[in-house]
User: Fold this.
Amino acid sequence: MWLAGLFGLCIGSFLNVLIDRLPKGQSVVYGRSHCDHCKKTLRWYELIPIVSFVIQLARCRRCHKKLSLQYPAIELLTGVGFALLFFYFADSITKLSAYVLIFCSLIVIFFADLKYQIIPDSMVVVGIIGVGLLGSVFDVRHAQVFWISAFGASVFFLLLWLLTGGRGMGLGDVKLVFLLGLLLGYPGIVVALYAAFLTGAGVGVILMKARHKTWKSRVAFGPFLILGTVITILWKTQILAWWGNIL
Ligand SMILES: [Zn+2]
Assistant:
């Protein structure tokens, strides 16, 4: 489990690269990492997850400007995520790989959308491969539910996209909910969308009050969809029971 966590820290470091390069269409293999401020190419000892950040006191070695907290935060998040996934799914290598792929794709989509308002197609594909490994979408007895959830959610978001003229939702959201519908099925996807709209509206109101933003200024919706998905995975049973009580 500790090894899985350490491995996760290194993968987290790579996810940081994906988050910053995929939305800009840059190569994720070529090109060295550099300081956001002075563009200095980082040496290998400046790229050790967490350790480099702490030793350098969160500052660049050359320009001494503050390094973004994004880097160690995502490394830690991925490390903890890998440790937990290993803890729960160590008995099945297929399940473990599936959830690792889904987890990584959702982390990159969450932060790429938050930072650049772009959901990288390649990460949606990685997530769908992960869900495919789980096998539930190919199991003839239950598969229908997952595919209908995926297509239903996509069509719903495509309509929203058409109705708002692309100002509210992006086409990226249409692809993302396809992945989420395939992952959650029904009624999971409904719970996730409900939670996403609720948290999205809540944060939207707070942002409007705080920064005097108008509804027109685009706030990425992908992070809320992923937040809704996490809420659904953790508390689906409780939420459905609660709905059953009030309906
Ligand atoms: Zn610098």
Q: What stands out?
A: Residues 222-246 form the longest helix (25 residues). The CA atoms of residues 86 and 93 lie 9 Å apart. Residues 93-247 form one domain. The two ends are 43 Å apart (CA to CA).
